[in-house]
Each structure stands twice: as structure tokens, then as C-alpha cells.
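Class, study these two lines:
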Amino acid sequence: MTEPERDRKAYALAKEYLLGLAIPGVTPALVEKYLRFSQTRPRPDTVAGIYQALLVSAQNANMKAGVIGGSIDGVEKLGVVLSDFEPAGILGKFSSGPKAVLDEIEARLKPRGKIRRTPRSIWPHYCLTILSAARFMAQFPSATEFYKWADFFDQDDRARPALPMLLAREIEGLGFALSCDFLKELGYASYAKPDVHVSEIFGALQLCPPGSDDYDVFKAIVRVAKHADVTPYNVDKLFWLIGSGRFYDDPQLGNDGKVGSNKKGFIKQAKAKLAG
């Protein structure tokens, strides 16, 4: 089996498997809704809105979402501390550094749970992200200027991976995978987040070498998308739905949208069919 054939078959098997689970309410139309980035979903039209979206993506890893957004009922609540997400205002207000950010968050928002203040703990590290992201976004006088800059990378297949690499370098704690998440959630369907679910499935099915880093998994997602004639966003979301079991926009499914991970079952079935 050639690489393009394997990629196409793996994608078809994933879609077939997800629908074959016969989860009540999970119809072909509903799955397609998740795989197709909604053109009606407005993207932020201000620098403050883009900065807020960046902070949402920055906590979309491991335990971070529960510790950050989960403890204050959403990242949007940070607006009262962060000058309504205006980067210039944040930099002026917190010139003394990240400790001042965390002090005010604790005083005004009173996050649930214990706030650990060691340098490697989640909240102190996130406050470093808050300030470095503000410094980065303050370079752009308008949302239009930001999108023009991002479009420059997105319009060239060779340059596209350089954008999340640049964001990861400039913004403390973001990393390559979360940078991709930020870009795809802004509507850049050529980007995909190489998260743990997708990485594990791709490695197990030999769509990339097992243990590949985020950059190589990203490149593999882009390749599969090209061979399957869909967007990287589409491939990302399909394999992520199997791995996470989270239909986040449909709380009527399962337990508040959670139907359980089917990663192991899919890997077992797909490996057998790809080997045949």
C-alpha cells in the first residue's frame, strides 16, 4: 500500500468507525458539523479579542484548563484584571512582573482550589504567558494587521509551519501544539493541533513514527489531509473526536457531550484493516 493510499484509508476508517459506534445522536450530519470549520463563527475583530483567544488556547493542555479557566468560570473572567484584554494596558499595569498579575487574580477573582506559587506551577507559569503574549500582541496596531501578517505564512505551504514555531518562541508557555490550536480556532483551517490523542493514533497506525514530536505529527496531519482531500482542521477534529469522545457543542449527547474515548478500540480495528 502506498503512503497516499494508506492515508486515505486511515481517514476513511476513522470516519467509518466513529459513525459505526452508533452513539445515539451522533449522525453523519453532526460529525460533519465538527469537521467543517464554521464560516459563520465570527473571528475576533480587535487585537484584544485575538489576545483573549490566545489566552484560551494557552490553557488548552493537560490539567491547565481545569486549573485556569475551570477555577474562575472561564478565561473571559480575566478581563476585569487584564484591562479588558488590551495588551498595552496590561503591560502598563503590570510592569513589575507576573507576580503582580497573580496577586490581583487571586484578590479579585478568588480562583477555586489551592494556588501553588512555585515557578513551575500552573498559575505562575500562566501569568508569564499573560505578559509575554501581551508584549507580542502589542506589536499589532489592529486585528487587520495581525491577520495580514498571519496570512503571509498561511498562503505558502513552505512557510506555514514557521508561524506556530515563531509564536512558540515568542510567547512563554504556548509551545508548537497550542500555537496551532490558537491559529485553527481563529479560522485557519490549514492548521491542526497535534495533541496527545492524535499523536498516539497516528503513531500506532504508522501515519508517523511512534514518539514523533509535535512538528512531525503536524506535518503528518497535513499530509493525510492532502491525500484525503480535506483540510488539516478536518483531520485533526475527526481523530480527536475518536480519542477524546468530547462533542463539546452538544451537551445532550452522553454525559454533557462526553461519550467516552474510543481510541484503543479504533487503533486495534484500524491496524488490522490497514495491515490487510
In short: The chain has a mean pLDDT of 92.
